[in-house]
Amino acid sequence: METIVKITKDKGQFYLIWLSSGDKLRVSEDILVKHRLLKGQELAESTIEAIKKAGSYDVGLQMSLNYLSYQLRSEKEILDYLREKEILLDDRKKIVEQLKTLNLLDDKSYSESYVRTQMRISDKGPKMIQQQLKKKGINEEDIQHGLTFFTLSEQVEVAVAAAEKAMKRYRDKSFKDSLQKVKLHLMQKGFNYEVIDLALEELSFEKDEDEEKEIVQKQGDKLWERNHKLDRKKRLMKVKQGLFQKGFDYDLINQYISEKELEDDE
Question: Which intervals hold domain RecX third three-helical (predicted)?
């Protein structure tokens, strides 16, 4: 037997029943009234179990409704959330079915909403969004439904913005290397080759010869200092190889090396 030590108000329409063992029960107002729970009342183990079982569903449903009030959730997200809250498995399943009946849980609608949101606020492509939806437990059919709203033209628009941002990040690299890194960046973001080509075509990136020469000078000087322990011939070779690997034009590299040779002769 257990004795109710006190009853306190909890969030929403719930109450905490504090027992003499130190345990507590979270119950709805309906259960409080149904079992006529009062301070000082003695409860048999069977009654406590019945209250726990009844309370699990009510509490879980209320928690789910609150969880859904912030944003849409997938079925898996609701089940994971209820498991973390220690709601009984049978009740978790019943709650999910009840939420579906109330049209508050629909993975197809969730997929559509998620895709539309990512299109608006992120620089992610379809493949990355697809991976994220899989992690949220959305099946492939519902994922593909959502992705139909991410049209080719909209993908190109997002990819263009992502490419422009990425190109600024690689200003200290050769034009060839920068372009390759931008393409790789867009691939990692989840865009396919067609969208990447269309985005880069729209941006029409062009090499600025003067800027490229300045970058060669900066990168060459860094390599020159890094290899200062080598003899003159090996040092020049290392710098030349390094600049070539970074994607600079052969003529610009030779021009830099020639200028370095002249400096050494002075």
Answer: 154-200, 211-257
Residues 254 and 234 in one domain: yes
Which of 43, 49, 80 is CA-nearest to residue 64? 80
- Residue-number span of the structural domain to which 234 is assigned: 209-265
Alpha helices in the chain (DSSP H): 29-34, 45-70, 75-84, 89-101, 107-121, 126-135, 140-147, 152-169, 175-188, 193-203, 209-226, 232-245, 250-265
Q: How confident is the model at residue 220 (pLDDT cuts 50, 70, 90)?
A: confident
The angle at the Cα of 148, spanning 142 to 152, to the nearest 5 degrees, equals 150
Lowest-confidence segment of 43-52, 125-134, 252-261 by average pLDDT: 252-261
For residue 127, how many C-alpha atoms fall within 13 Å in the half-sphere facing its CB? 10
Q: With contact defined as beta carbons under 8 Å apart, do 65 and 98 qualify? A: no
pLDDT of res. 210: 66
pTM (2 decimals)? 0.71
The percent of residues in the chain predicted with pLDDT above 90, rounded, is 42
Mark whether 184 and 252 lie in a shared domain: no
The residues that bridge with 18 in the sheet, in sequence order, are 6, 24
Q: Is the pLDDT of residue 236 over 50?
A: yes
Least confident span in 69-73, 102-106, 107-111, 231-235: 231-235
Number of domains in the chain: 4
- Other C-beta atoms closer than 10 Å to the C-beta of 66 total 11
Domain harbouring 170, CATH code? 1.10.10.10
Bridge partners for 27 per DSSP: 15
Considering the domain architecture, whether residues 177 and 247 belong to the same structural domain is answered as no
Q: Residue 214: what pLDDT?
A: 73
